[in-house]
Every structure is written in C-alpha cells, then in structure tokens.
Amino acid sequence: MKKVPYLIKKSLWVYHVNTGACNACDIEVVDALMPYHDVERFGIKLVPSPRQADALLVTGPVTRQAALRLRRVYEAVPEPKIVIAVGNCACTGGIWYDSYSILGGVDKVIPVDIYIPGCPPKPQAIIYGIAQALKLIPYRRPTKEIHVE
Ligand code: SF4
C-alpha cells in the first residue's frame, strides 16, 4: 500500500471490461471519458492494458463465458487495485439475473469496491463513482452487517 499516495497525487488509470453488457453502459463509459467531461483533468485515463491500470471499470452481467476472462484480467491488474461495477447488470445481474447463461453481478467473480447503479448510469454518475474510488484508495468499504427486524 506504499504506492497509494503516489496514485492519489498522480492519476487513476482505468481499464474497461465488458462481461456481457448490451453496450449502452459502454457508451456511457466512453461518454464519461470524452473531452466534453474532461476527466483527464482529474488524472483519470483509459488505458489499453490491465497491467497499466489502477482500476477496473466493469459493465454488464457476467456471462459464463466471460467469467474466467474477467478473473484473469483482475489478476493482471497490479496491487493496489479497485473494481468499479457500472450499471445495474454489473451490480446485480440486472434484468438477466436468472438467465441460464449469466452468473450474476461482477461480485460473483471478483471483489467490487464501488457500485454505480443505473440502466445505463449517466456519465455524471460514473464520474462520481470514480471520484469516490479515488477517495477510497487505499480503503475498502467495510462490509456492514444489516439487521432487519
Ligand atoms: S444496466 Fe442496462 S444499459 Fe447497462 S448493460 Fe445492463 S441492460 Fe444494458
């Protein structure tokens, strides 16, 4: 975790993975990273390889075919790393949750730090989620026990 102050000061490089999305979430991710929103002013940049990334942006429910690939991509990202699930499908499996070919949300395969709901979420919501991720480094949100009476 010694690299964390360096990451916060310098930038957050993200690698985008589609594990079965309908592409609407992907279009919003691209929109969020375009010059109109100019996230590079915060040091947020899309990179072409998971080995260069600090964070994974994952869209779509996880299909059975994509699960192993997602796991391998996750393992290729150097520590410390964070995972951001973008869209209802990535958060929970969405409308495909009970499909025969879907395992569920991203957290069925790899640990998720930030959930950004929406179908699809707006670019502003995605940028907000990434900003939250920046604050979260090096902290992971603790799992809270929920008591329902
Ligand atoms: S959350 Fe909605 S827009 Fe995003 S991949 Fe799922 S169905 Fe498509």
What do these coordinates show?
With 149 residues, the chain is of the alpha/beta class. The chain has one domain: Rossmann fold (3-Layer(aba) Sandwich). 33% of the residues lie in helices and 19% in strands. The strands form two sheets. A five-stranded parallel β-sheet has the order 2-1-3-5-7, sandwiched between helices. It has a two-stranded antiparallel ribbon with strand order 4-6. It is globular. Bound molecules: iron/sulfur cluster.
- Counting structural domains, the number is 1
Main sheet makeup:
5 strands, parallel
The ligands found in this model are:
iron/sulfur cluster
Uncertain parts: 1-7
So what's the overall shape?
globular
E-strand count: 7
Q: Taking Cα atoms only, what radius of gyration do you get, to the nearest Å? A: 15 Å
CATH class membership: Alpha Beta
Number of helices: 5
CATH names the topology as: Rossmann fold
Strand content: 15-25%
Mean residue pLDDT: 86
Question: Main sheet: which strands, in order across?
Answer: 2-1-3-5-7
Say what oligomer this is: single chain
- Strand and helix order: HEHEEEHEHEEH
Structural class: alpha/beta
Termini Cα gap: 39 Å
CATH architecture: 3-Layer(aba) Sandwich
Helix content: 25-40%
Summarize this entry quickly:
This protein is α/β, with parallel strands linked by helices. The protein has helices at residues 4-10, 24-33, 64-76, 88-92, 123-136; strands at residues 12-18, 44-46, 55-59, 62-63, 82-86, 102-104, 114-116.
